[in-house]
Design goal:
115 residues, alpha+beta, two-stranded antiparallel sheet, 6 helices, 4 strands
Length: 115
């Protein structure tokens, strides 16, 4: 059975779409490697608890004080020194609101300035 020219074109376009969909998808080897690397960016050297890449210094310090009192944060998380030295980046939400967090309270809105 032979295909008409229209059917051939449609089949070729479908093949190209499938090929393009495979590029940069979450199932590609590079994407899976990046996900695996980013998912356990910070690991406590004492208890081996993993923290995500977006964990802040305060979260890591809170872990140290609550789980390993008496230990130095720098000893358990060597990367914390670099994290402290790096400038803190405000989130897009904080940049839009100017650092204020507002909560709807009936008709009135209460805004609290966060330092």
């Amino acid at each position: 059975m032979s295909l008409t020219k229209l059917q051939q074109k449609l089949k070729q376009k479908e093949k190209e779409r499938k090929k393009e969909a495979g590029k940069g998808s979450a199932t590609s080897k590079e994407a899976l490697d990046k996900i695996a690397k980013d998912s356990v960016a910070h690991i406590c050297s004492l208890c081996r608890q993993a923290f995500p890449v977006n964990a802040t210094v305060s979260i890591l310090e809170q872990h140290v004080t609550s789980k390993h009192s008496g230990e130095a944060a720098e000893k358990l998380f060597p990367e914390i020194v670099d994290m402290r030295a790096a400038p803190q980046v405000k989130s897009k939400k904080d940049a839009k609101s100017g650092g204020a967090h507002c909560a709807a309270d009936g008709k009135a809105r209460q805004c609290v300035e966060i330092p």
